[in-house]
Amino acid sequence: EKPSSLPDLGRGAVLGTILGILMPLLSQTKMQQHLEALFAPGKVGEDYLEIWMPRYTRFESLMATITDKNAMLQSLKEVHERLPEIKCPIQVLIGDGDKVCSPDQQVALLGEKLPAAKIVRLADAGHSLNLSHPLDCLKAIDDLFARL
Questions:
Q1: CA distance linking residue 72 with residue 79, whole number of Å
Q2: Cβ-Cβ contacts under 8 Å for 99 (sequence gap 6 or more)
Q3: How many separate domains does the chain show?
C-alpha cells in the first residue's frame, strides 16, 4: 500500500474546499465498512456507530487519519527492523478474526523479530480488542504483571 497524496491536495483553497464538502459525504459507507472490519468477527454496536461515525467522517478527522496512515506506511519497515531492540517483557494480544491485520502474518513477524514475546490469541476477537474484549485485555495485562 502506498501513502495517499490527499493531505497535500486538501491544503489548497479550491481543492481543499471541494474535498472538505465531498469527503465526509463519500466516506460514510467506507467508514462503516472499516468499523465493521475492526470489530469483526463481532458486531459494531449501533450506539458506537451513532456516536463515532459523525466524528470519524468529519473532513479534519479524515485528513488526520490519512496523514497518520501515511506516516505508518512510511515508517513500518524501520519499525519492523528495530523490533529486536525491545528488551523489556512483551505480551501481544492478537484476535484470530482480525480482518485488518492478518493474525498469521502478525504471529510470523513477531516470532521472527521478538521470539521471547508471549503471544495471546483470542479465538473470537478481531482487530479492536480493547473495545470488543476489554475484560480479556485486562486479564492479559494482569497476567503479564503477575509474571514480572
A1: 9
A2: 37, 38, 40, 126, 127
A3: 2
